[in-house]
Amino acid sequence: MKLKPSKREQIFPLPVALVSTVSNEGIRNAAPWSNITPILRPLEEVVLASWLKRDTLTNIRETGEFVINIPPVEMVEAVMVCSRNYPPEVDEFEMAGLKSHISEEIRAPGIEGCLAWAECTLVEEILREKFSLIIGKVVNLEVDEKFFDEEGQMDFEKAKPMSCVLGSKGLTFTCPKDSGKSADYSEMFLGGKEALSPKP
Ligand SMILES: Cc1cc2nc3c(=O)[nH]c(=O)nc-3n(C[C@H](O)[C@H](O)[C@H](O)COP(=O)(O)O)c2cc1C
C-alpha cells in the first residue's frame, strides 16, 4: 500500500512534550509539541519545529527561553486544552488548571505534574517560508525522582510519558512499553568502543 508523501507524519510514533514560555508581559503559555527532539547524543541541544503563527514562537523570540516539560499520558485533557488557539493575552496555565514549576536558570516556568523539565535558551532560529526551526540549549535539566533512578534512567512503564500516533482522523495517545529487547550503545561500534567516549 502507498500513502501520499504528505502523510509522512503518520509513520512515526511521536513524543508529546508541553512547551512552556512566558511573554514579555509575564503571561504564561503552554502548548503541546511533537516536532521536538534532542539533537544527537550526548550533546546539550534540542530542536523544535514551529508553524509561524504560534504564541510559543513569539515568546521564544521575545525572551530567548522555553521549558520542555514531559507530561504523563494522564495529563491528556490538560494537554488538549493547551492545544487550543487562545489569544496571546490568555494565561494558558490558568485555562488548563496547571501550576507553575519554578525554573532555576530561566524566567519561564515549567509545569507541575510533569515527569521532567528541560530549561532551554534559544541558540538559533532557522526561518523557512512556512515554519521555523528553533535550536535551544538545555541549561538545566530536572526529573521527578519517582520515575527516574539515580543515573537518570526513566522507569517508563511507571512514568507513562505521553506520545502519539497521528492518523487520518486524529491523534491516538500512546505510551512506550518494554519489548523485552535491549542493546548496549557499544554494539554500534566495531571493537565495542564508542567513538565519542573519552580516550583512556
Ligand atoms: C499532540 C500535539 C502536538 C503538536 N505539535 C506541534 C508542533 O510540533 N509544532 C507546532 O507548531 N504545533 C504543534 N501543535 C499545535 C499547537 O500545540 C497548537 O497550535 C497550540 O495552540 C499552539 O499554542 P500557542 O499559540 O500558544 O503556541 C501540536 C498539537 C498537538 C495536540
TrEMBL record:
The protein's matches in Gene3D superfamilies, at most eight in alphabetical order, are given as: Electron Transport, Fmn-binding Protein, Chain A
**Keywords (A to Z) from UniProt:** Flavoprotein, FMN
Matching entries from InterPro entries are given as: Flavin_Rdtase-like_dom, Split_barrel_FMN-bd
Which GO molecular function annotation, any one, does this entry have?
FMN binding
Cofactor names: FMN
Cited SMART domains: Flavin_Reduct
Query: What Pfam families does the database record attribute to this sequence?
Result: Flavin_Reduct
Q: Which domain of life is it from?
A: Archaea
Domain Flavin reductase like, first and last residues per copy: 12-157
Assigned protein family: Belongs to the flavoredoxin family.
Stated name of the protein? Flavin reductase like domain-containing protein
Give the source species.
Methanosarcina acetivorans (strain ATCC 35395 / DSM 2834 / JCM 12185 / C2A)
